[in-house]
Request: fold
Amino acid sequence: MTAEPVADSSARKQQIREQAHANRNAQENKDDLSRQIVARCMAMPEYQNAKTVLFYIDVRSEVRTRNDLTNALAGGKKIIVPYCVEGELELFHLENNDELAIGMYKILEPKDELRSVAAKKVDVKEIDLIIVPGVAFDRRGGRTGHGKGYYDKLLEHARPDTPLVALAFECQMFDEIPMQDHDVYMDKVVTEKAVYDGLGRR
Reply:
């Protein structure tokens, strides 16, 4: 597979993002479908076998994970949530939902006063499973986010054996996401209809 020229790839990705956002915003029954998707993810061996799991917290019309955080916290795993600081994702060990508050852009994040607690800080190499959000995906595990590269930077430092599992509504699936050489493929993409086996980082 040869990568597309960067300019063509960027333009195509932007078209796909716009279409995916429209599809996702129009998606009905987001809560019900999200519960199905998260339940499917949590039943997978990749989740069952992981001791430490990075769980994104949904924003806007993403697959909703916040409704399942309580179950995740009660499941005996170490649950990590990301938050953004100056264009980088920091990782926080979440022990109960009371540690979260509405932050900038109306995003649910760890409370400011807890972020400097040393015991709450986590290195990405400690994580056994990364649950990844995204705007659009294909069935090979190709992904595009918002174009800011937060997750790309984080995933560069993840352990090679850590599965990357994306959650998406079926309406976010496209025939092909243009990928550059540095882009990362997901190991699995989980929707309300299927679990797609991606190329991963091999």
